[in-house]
Design brief:
Number of strands: 0
Radius of gyration: 28 Å
Largest sheet: none
Number of helices: 3
Strand content: under 5%
Oligomer: single chain
Length: 150
């Protein structure tokens, strides 16, 4: 099987820096979305989530390349000098990713809370609407009865 040569450590280091910056951007956008959710949501929240999605699209190939490199290096054995160098390159990316994922988890939990609260409000409105509608229908029936009796 003929495989393309593995990316150089220099290229991997550059891609790791880019991935770290993008993970930091994801974390910052999750923070913006959390703040927007606390205020009023709206366009700031939607804008932050849309931008985060664009950043995640940019991140995917970088993370995939770093994972392939890590897997390949591990196959060489723990003592290979490239393995230590790659671990040094990837560590800041992993830290930025953990921070971004932590903020993202908080955002997801808050969004779920908000969704449940909205569902409860809608259920209450629906119940009140049904009660008002039933009351209005009873009033119409009563008026018709009075009209017929007259």
């Amino acid at each position: 099987m003929n495989r393309a040569p593995a990316a150089s450590l220099q290229t991997l280091a550059r891609h790791a820096r880019e991935a770290g910056i993008l993970f930091e951007r994801c974390g910052a956008l999750a923070g913006v979305a959390l703040a927007a959710l606390d205020r009023d949501g709206g366009s700031t929240l939607v804008g932050a989530l849309e931008e985060r999605d664009r950043v995640l699209e940019q991140l995917a190939p970088l993370v995939a390349e770093l994972e392939v490199a890590r897997t390949g290096m591990k196959a060489k054995g723990r003592m290979a000098p490239e393995v230590h160098h790659l671990q040094t390159i990837i560590q800041p990316v992993e830290e930025a990713a953990r921070h971004a994922f932590s903020l993202q988890a908080r955002l997801a939990a808050r969004l779920e809370e908000r969704r449940r609260a909205i569902r409860t409000e809608l259920d209450q409105l629906s119940t009140a609407d049904r009660a008002a509608s039933a009351y209005a229908q009873r009033q119409v029936v009563e008026v018709r009865r009075i009209d017929r009796a007259s």
